[in-house]
Amino acid sequence: MAIHTLNPATGKKLRTYREHSPRQCELAVARAQRAFAAWRRTSLGRRTARLRALARELHRQRADFAALATAEMGKPVTQALAEVEKCALGCQFFADHGAAWLADERPAGAPAHRYVTCQPLGVLLAIMPWNFPFWQIYRVAAPALLGGNTVLLKHAANVTGCALLIEASFRRAGFPPGVFQALVVGPEQASALVSHPGVAAVTFTGSTATGKKIAALAGAALKKGVFELGGSDPYLVLADADLALAAEACAAARLYNNGQSCVAAKRLIVVESVRAEFEALLVARLAARRSGDPRAATADLGPLARADLRDRLHAQVRQSVRCGAKLLLGGRVPAGPGFFYPPTVLTGVRPGMAAYDDETFGPVAVVISAPDEAAAVRLANDTPYGLGAAVFTRDRRRGEHIAREQLECGNAFVNEFVRSHPALPFGGVKQSGHGRELGAFGLREFVNCKTVSVG
Ligand code: NAD
């Protein structure tokens, strides 16, 4: 089978790739297992040195990496460059701190002759989405490889070129053959690999629907898994918020990555007394964003990554309007080539509307009115998802209380746009998945915390 990549800014074909055959997949698993036998015995110092070399390689190649992401999935090139730099920093970060997190430990109260050691699990299968085509991969691979595992990547088809460039970066950084491999396969072969006896564990990032299928397969085989799934992050704007700050953060968080981020500001829950003023500020900011060729440094917004994703987003907007939501901005598919969608604002959004009930993956800001703070918190949690959330208020202590105690999610921010950092665990609760990436928690997901007793 062939895989075609398209440029979403033009709709034109970029390249055709041949899918790996089942036999090639078998060989890749065997290679990953052989590489694991040697890599796990490679000293932590040497593994760390490879990660540092990888960080240098990413920094050196950032322009080529960024250009390819922009061509394959339409991210504005300035954001693509920032993503590559974040990958380099992430690799550097795990090189600087990972060894300490993997060190043997004698927990307080343990007998003097017993301790815990972190041993690798084996071959990790990583099934990944296209929206951050580099960051998703390096944030998984850097800690997994540092811990002594080897990695097989199954990337999304529309970023196959990125997958192969990533594989080459590991080679150029001096990782031994087989330690990191990219497989060009579709969903069927990827599912078969989840159950393959040569695969020790699975990490999946993508939609909740697919995550459930992969988790079922991993569960049936009793394999360890981390699942980073969809989100519908609430951003609460309370009556005492700095509305200009809140409108700017919501506009930026909704449009970042062309609105295609798991932790985008997907539901803006605004206390009714400030709703009209907030909406005016938000619409002004979104209307001023420049949409266009994502290769241009001036573009704030590029196309959506695929035609079907734009169709789906537009159908969600239309269904919501049919059910009574009001369009304050955008909402029309532009004429011309590519899969562009304008910054859009919907207000009066309620349960039963797609913009309330489902994840919207694109530049559509959804305003939901709340009579007061307590109702805002209730609405924020009235979702199957639990990835990120933000609250805007001038009372930082009240904001902290809401973020810490009341919002059901894995990342809760006050007066800020939600984003990940290599030092801090990232992940969700409820239908946004389980397990964590990044930080010491992420690093320890794919190790065997083994108790050793030397009597
Ligand atoms: P998707 O679930 O369609 O695809 C994700 C990956 O799974 C791709 O590689 C795809 O080819 C593969 N896949 C699809 N069906 C499969 C199957 N039956 N068996 C095996 N593999 C299969 O998701 P997407 O549209 O690429 O990504 C967008 C989604 O990802 C959004 O819901 C977004 O919120 C979520 N996401 C979550 C995080 C997070 O950290 N929680 C980060 C980024 C994206």
Your description of this structure?
It is a single chain. The protein has 455 residues and is of the alpha/beta class. It has 2 domains: 2-229 and 429-453, Aldehyde Dehydrogenase, Chain A, domain 1, CATH 3.40.605.10; 234-414, Aldehyde Dehydrogenase, Chain A, domain 2, CATH 3.40.309.10. It has 15 helices and 17 strands. The protein has helices spanning 22-39, 44-60, 62-73, 77-102, 135-146, 160-172, 187-195, 208-220, 243-255, 272-288, 307-322, 354-357, 373-381, 396-406, 439-443; strands spanning 2-7, 12-18, 114-120, 123-127, 150-154, 180-183, 201-205, 224-228, 234-237, 267-271, 326-329, 344-347, 364-370, 388-392, 411-414, 433-434, 447-453. The strands form 4 sheets. Strands 11-12-13-10-9-14-15 form a 7-stranded mixed β-sheet, with helices on both faces. It starts with a strand and ends with a strand. The protein binds nicotinamide-adenine-dinucleotide (NAD).
Question: What tags apply to this protein structure?
Answer:
15 helices, Aldehyde Dehydrogenase, Chain A, domain 1, 455 residues, 2 domains, 19% strand, alpha/beta, binds nicotinamide-adenine-dinucleotide, six-stranded mixed beta sheet, single chain
